[in-house]
Amino acid sequence: MNIKTPTILKTSSTDEYYFDEGCYILEYSNAEEDPDVSIARARVLPNTETQLHKLSQTIERYLILEGTGEVTLGDPNSNTLNCATVSNGDVIIIPKNCPQAIRNTGENDLIFLVICTPRFEPENYIEC
Q1: Which residue in 16, 37, 40, 68 could disulfide with 106, CB within 3.0 to 4.6 Å?
Q2: Residue 60: domain span
Q3: Is the dihedral of CA 14, 19, 25, 28 positive or negative?
Q4: According to the model, what pLDDT value does residue 43 have?
Q5: pLDDT surpassing 90 at residue 116
Q6: Residue 44, class by beta-carbon neighbours within 10 Å (0-12 exposed, 13-18 middle, 19+ buried)?
Q7: Residues 54-63: what's their mean pLDDT?
Q8: Could you give the count of Cα atoms lying within 13 Å of 96 in the half-sphere of its Cβ?
Q9: pLDDT over 70 for what percent of the chain?
Q10: pTM over 0.85
């Protein structure tokens, strides 16, 4: 880590943006000075599914905070896709190069933290 002193990052809900994948993102931490990890909040609207994609150099972890959904995960070594129901408190660990999507099956927004190691970089995003 390149950070030499304690750092406090402040985020405002007005910093949330729509990502073409099909969800809203609020980045809490994603900086070159801290290349080991990035942290964001994702928000998926009801009856919405994110685009099937994978990250080439990044392991992702989803921590479901609110709502219910169905996550689709693929085997990085085959074309097999598996689905699982997720809800508050569940953690989904997604290896690099693993096809993935998440669908909101509830009536309210599906909200989860996305923790990436190393940090998320757009050039690692691959549509499936």
Answers
A1: 68
A2: 36-127
A3: negative
A4: 98
A5: yes
A6: buried
A7: 97
A8: 11
A9: 98
A10: yes
Parallel, antiparallel or unpaired: strands 68-74 and 81-87? antiparallel
Identify the pLDDT of residue 6: 87
As a three-state string, the secondary structure of the chain is CCCCCCCCCCCCHHHCEEECCCEEEEEEECCCCCCCCEEEEEEECCCCECCCEEECCCEEEEEEEECEEEEEEECCCCCCEEEEEEECCCEEEECCCCCEEEEECCCCCEEEEEEEECCCCHHHEEEC
Residue 122 located in a structural domain: yes
Sign of the dihedral through C-alpha 89, 126, 47, 19: positive
Q: How confident is the model at residue 2 (pLDDT cuts 50, 70, 90)?
A: low
